[in-house]
Design goal:
Elements lengths: L2 H4 L2 E4 L6 E2 L2 E2 L3 H5 L5 E4 L6 H11 L5 E4 H12 L4 E5 L2 H9 L3 E3 L8 E4 L7 H12 L3 E4 L5 E4 L2 E4 L1 H12 L4 E2 L6 H6 L6 E5 L2 H10 L3 E5 L6 H5 L9 E3 L21 E5 L2 E5 L2 H14 L4 E3 L2
Parallel strand pairs: 1-4, 1-13, 4-5, 6-7, 6-8, 8-9, 9-12, 13-14, 14-15, 17-18
Antiparallel strand pairs: 2-3, 10-11, 16-17
Helix pairs in contact: 6-7
Length: about 300
Amino acid sequence: MTLIQRYDALLFDLDGTVWHGDVPIPGAVEALRGCDPIYLTNNASKAPEEVQEKLSGMGFPRGSVLTSAQAAVALAAETKPGASALILGADSFRHLAREAGLRVVAGADERPDFVLHGHSPDTGWRQLSEAALAIRAGARYIASNRDTSLPSERGLMVGNGSMVAAVESATGVRAVAAGKPETRMFEQAARGTERPLVIGDRLDTDIAGGVAAGMDTLHVLTGVSTAWDLLTAPPEHRPTYVAEDLRGLHMEPEDLRPGPREGARAYRDGDAIVIEGPAHQGLLAALPLAWEAPFSEVRGL
């Protein structure tokens, strides 16, 4: 039985897992062919329908899409139905807010009940300052997510979390995060299923959220979190499985689970961990050693 056959719901991250910007990650389209994916994205810059169009345009199954913008809007609407909100983000974020019954305002002078902050490449100093003014006047601050970086085909760009940090620094108010790693999105996506699997590239959001929600997780090494991040991960960031990319979904589960491997060896030499054999198999062999006690260096990775 392959990994993909073991679970009845597949919860995929997008940026760094399925694609880099506008480019599919090698092997991803083929890996998802024939499955019924659920996409959970912390990127709040596009409406769910836009995300589905982008996916199908690249050859991926459309699946269902849940964004952190939806999670942020739902949190505000549940906290205070019919509230007013100043929104930093894309027009689709404002549309979602109106659909949920929130009254969208243009600036801090209208004394909004909430500031909702999601990623948009058009957000600049004026928008951040308007948010800061509203928050200092009493608005509650909800961030769609805290991802400090955003994977793209050119590398890691500035993410929403970095922009949120600027507002937090200016106001002294810490935002409530609605997206990953909070469990709201995972629990909503997995409703009605028995064996969901969370798949992502970030240990501190995708994997941490899946672990917190009590779900099995697959970490892919195609995005933000590296092999070194895995070796130094705290217990709440440790995945059930580790694959080089999404093609791992079609491998046997035990071939992806951290632990001893045939053809690779990991052992301690004083404060160092020494890895021998193929890099990925060696990483899987080294993870239990790294997680059981501190180390100073890794040789052979």
